[in-house]
Design a protein that fits this description.
Number of domains: 1
Order of helices and strands: HHHHHHHH
Distance between the termini: 17 Å
Bound molecules: 2-acetamido-2-deoxy-beta-D-glucopyranose
Strand content: under 5%
InterPro entries: PBP/GOBP, PBP_GOBP_sf
Structural class: mainly alpha
Pfam families: PBP_GOBP
Helix content: 55-70%
Largest sheet: none
Organism: Ectropis obliqua (Tea geometrid moth)
Shape: globular
GO biological process, one term: sensory perception of smell
Number of strands: 0
CATH class: Mainly Alpha
Protein name: Putative odorant binding protein 1
CATH topology: Recoverin, domain 1
Length: about 150
Amino acid sequence: MFRLVGFICVCAALTPYFASAMTAEQKQKIHEHFETIGMKCMKDHHITEADITDLRAKKVPSGPEAPCFLACVMKDIGVMDGNGLIQKETALELAKKVFEDAEELKMIEEYLHSCAHVNTEPVSDGDKGCDRAIIAMKCMIENASQFGFDL
Ligand SMILES: *[C@@H]1O[C@H](CO)[C@@H](O)[C@H](O)[C@H]1NC(C)=O
């Protein structure tokens, strides 16, 4: 579960920094928080074993309910709004709570910005956000290395 939870933080595009900048106690709290969200979303959206394997490997899961599971997690964290759009500002606000280094924050901002086009991609499910959650995850995975993030 913890590794899945660790992945879920990736959805917020913050894990690499969270992981390096936090104390064990902070990590534990965040783990618990994301575990609760993950469990709740798993109840509503049945993800498969293969999805979990993919998530652990930081790959985009392909199961039928994986997109809506990701959307559920992103909405609960607050990085996706009720219209199914990615809230870059919320993600950045979260990052600011943890990081004080201006350089690091700038990198995070640029990273998030590189995926800003996600909000203008056509989706088939409107404000549900399931399609967009997958598009966002693809971009975050693809672009992480470009910014020196080791997911
Ligand atoms: C990665 O970032 C670049 C900008 O640096 C952007 O143009 C590109 O669309 C992003 N990749 C994906 C998969 O969205």
